[in-house]
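ligand=PRP
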Amino acid sequence: MWWDAIQQVLIPEAELRQRVQILGQAITDDYRGEDLVLIPVLKGALVFGADLARAIALPLTLDAVCLSSYGHQPVSSGTVRLRKDLDDSIAGKHALIVEDIIDTGFTLQALWRHLQARGPATLRTCVLLDKRARRRVDVPVHYRGFEVPDAFVVGYGLDYQGRYRNLPFIGILHPECFQEAPPAQSPPCRRS
Ligand code: PRP
């Protein structure tokens, strides 16, 4: 398999699909009749955001932001960089941030403050994976997919040094690959 760097499948594809449908239904029920703007946080939320948007049966709009705090490092730098802002105003609208994972919480906290200042009618968060054990700052999570252990998870949008975002499941990266920490742009970890 091209994903031989994966030690264990943590959340299989079918389970992800099922949970995304449940989240989509809850959001549909909560925002019926409202002007909803879905805000996926790129790049990690690219896959989840695309699936979630299609699981919401409302005439929503989509406006992505791109943030980065990890770069190619395995730990958060603590400094969140806004690489791409919203295209349109969210003033008076119901804004819903869509994140692939909350870890330290630095990214979501920075975005929360940034968007709150734009005057939305409401601001909420929908997070696929919650790595609660590593939280450093408190941020509200209104819709949560799964709680995950403190392991290096990749797939379904999440990466390690830019790779594995296209895995259809959430997997735990093999420690060998993670500890070797090959420099950015190096070939993917091969274990066989
Ligand atoms: C990842 C992830 C979240 C953030 C969560 O982004 O997509 O945005 O880290 O971590 P935190 O709670 O510790 O801030 P990353 O900076 O790796 O960029 P990416 O989305 O392009 O992968």
